[in-house]
Amino acid sequence: MDDTLDTPHAPAQPASPVAEPRARPGSFPGPQHPWRRPAGALARWKKRLGEAKATWPLTTIDELIATDGHVQKLAGLIQERYGLSHEAAELQAGRFLGRGGAT
Length: 103
What we know:
Order of helices and strands: HHHHH
Strand content: under 5%
CATH architecture of the domain at 38-103: Orthogonal Bundle
Number of helices: 5
CATH class of the domain at 38-103: Mainly Alpha
Radius of gyration: 25 Å
CATH topology of the domain at 38-103: Protein Yjbj, Chain: A
Largest sheet: none
Helix content: 40-55%
Number of strands: 0
């Protein structure tokens, strides 16, 4: 008889306790990602909340704060509240934020 069949197998090596490095949530390579904004953009947005509320009175200040001044988030809110097309809402948000509708 072959003795190798009765020999217990060596236990598998446990996974290394050091995990592979992962990108931080919310970090994206390259400067052109749509969620990236220039430094100070959030502070400028917070200063313009009253103006945004006057521009879109069907929104609440809390909803506007939650958009953080992101074109896509603001456009989604405008689209939802005013029943606009995505393109029209994005154009309004982009113009308001000084981006000419670009995302």
